[in-house]
């Protein structure tokens, strides 16, 4: 979408992006059509991946519209920019995520660029918070992930090896905590890492429209995705623990394990 809608994108870049997008579409198609999992997690536990995809789509779309509005303003671009600017100003206190993102700009950045970056940072951060709220509501309302049917850990967590050692529940809880902690600290840590890397390598140039859109999207989406994964893994651990309790209670009552 950024390569199609944003101005100043040459034809070669658009073709490379289209090729990468096609490869990603083929990968997802074969992943969901195959009987055996490979990389995609929670493919048989909707709407986990659907929520993440919709969040990513909305973030990229709105940020692209805002950046395009700098050259070709429209009612939607001005409304999105104003909304993001309000959120950005509200959380632009010292050491806040938006404040740290603003520090990524070069020292000679103009006021217009600062306002633009603050607007898209505020809007993307708002979308990430709304995504988490929506996911928590779906968990509460739909009883995710089981919803009355069998949950296959191997299919939905293909990179998680239950036989690697240790109790499965304890490992799921531990991995869930690690993901939640990373989701909490990444909005603060990523700008610091970029600033540290810019002293050694060429800094990320946020005045490039495509770079700005994808950098700010990753800054907001990756922590949200990790936070959701952590919540999901802890939810699965609680489900397995509850199933164990029911099984042990059945054994104590009847003297044998149900088939």
TrEMBL record:
Q: Print the keywords alphabetically.
A: Membrane, Transmembrane, Transmembrane helix
Its domain of life reads: Bacteria
| TM spans (from-to) | 12-30, 51-69, 115-139, 180-201, 213-232
Q: What is this protein called?
A: Uncharacterized protein
